[in-house]
Amino acid sequence: MAATLQRFTRDADPDRIHAALIDDGAAIVEGLLDAAVVARVNEEVEAAVAAADPEEPVFNPVLAAFHGPQTRQVAGVAGISRTFATDVMCAPPLLALADRVLLPACARYQLNIGHLLQRGPGADEQWLHRDEAVWSDVPRAAGIELQLASVIAFVDFTRDNGATRLVPGSHRWADRALSPAEQMMQEPPPTDAIAYAEMPAGSAVVYTGGVIHAGGANTTTIARRGAHLSYCLGWLRTEENNYLAVPPARAATLPRQAQELLGYAVYDAIPRGGGYLGMVRLQDPVELLARGAL
User: Fold this and answer.
1) Average predicted confidence (pLDDT) for the chain
2) pTM (2 decimals)?
3) Is residue 189 a contact partner of residue 148, using CB atoms and an 8 Å limit?
4) Contacts 24+ apart (CB under 8 A), 13-18
């Protein structure tokens, strides 16, 4: 029998969901987005998805092999879909969890990456991996999480169309201390340790950076559209350069909360006895943006 994940509604107590993340490393939040938000995002990204070329060269061929030729990717979705930037990236249940997972180790967290992935018919299973591997050179102190990630369904996710596979509890495995290359050499998890994030459109599976997971194979005739959205500690470099993905002229049209998550706010750890990162002319860039001076 396959493993399962705890399920919650978007109105559930964030402390209960956080407890599930501590125990299992992952949980499903059903109804995170209402149907109107899902429809608006789908409409706003449609042209970009249609224009996405799975064969377009990427900076490292490993990425192309990881996603496969049946996957259309749209990067920097916050710069393409205003609804994504305001109603998805800033969704209160996600930020409530990010507060609990990330703020113990930073003065401010930020968007790490906001991509849309449309895995078409014939897409193979992704390699099982941990997202935190992108910061392999950062020593990870015990109990400190670098990242909170989510995969959000913009169509219904089923096991047949490639629902995300996750291994509950793998954030506590000893091999997490190994290098990413060494982790890849370990025996794969047994089949019954893998849970499938089957969920209706608008729902999300939320997980911490140490959880082993991967996209599933799409054996249907219908494309599986989902977003990979994650936040990370404010003192880390992000996977996507969000200042270029959402440049100042575009960011200026968004609410302040979105601007801050995109990294336009200075990282001020002085009240915590630390320093600061990301200032411009000794000022907070988000204030310069508000004044039209950036």
Assistant:
1) 95
2) 0.96
3) no
4) 14/93, 14/96, 14/97, 14/99, 14/100, 15/100, 17/93, 17/97, 17/206, 18/97, 18/100, 18/101
Which string of DSSP letters, residue by residue, matches 5-44? Answer: --EEETTS-HHHHHHHHHHHSEEEEETSS-HHHHHHHHHH
Each residue of 200-237: pLDDT tens digit?
999 999 999 999 999 999 999 999 999 999 999 999 99
- Angle, vertex CA 239, rays to CA 58 and CA 123, nearest 5: 50
Q: Under a CB-based contact definition with an 8 Å cutoff, are residues 235 and 176 in contact?
A: no
Say which residue the tokens 């916050």 belong to. 78
Domain boundaries, the chain: 7-247
Q: Quote the CA–CA distance of 167 and 24 in Å, as a whole number.
A: 8
286, 265 Cβ separation under 8 angstroms = yes
- Encode pLDDT of 184-199 as tens digits: 888 889 999 999 999 9
> What is the number of other CB atoms lying within 10 angstroms of the CB of residue 243?
15
* CATH H-level, domain 7-247: superfamily: q2cbj1_9rhob like domain (2.60.120.620)
Residue 143 in tokens: 């109990």
Which of 141-151 are b and which e, b meaning 16 or more Cβ less than 10 Å from the residue's Cβ? eeeebbbbbbb
d(CA 90, CA 32): 11
CA gap 178, 175 in Å, rounded: 5
What percent of the chain stands above pLDDT 70? 99
Long-range contacts of 37-40 (CB under 8 A, 24+ apart): 37/83, 37/87, 37/88, 37/202, 38/154, 38/201, 38/202, 40/81, 40/83, 40/87
Question: Are 33 and 93 spatial neighbours (Cβ–Cβ below 8 Å)?
Answer: no
Q: Is the pLDDT score of 65 beyond 90?
A: no
Angle subtended by helix axes 92-102 and 14-24, to nearest 10: 50
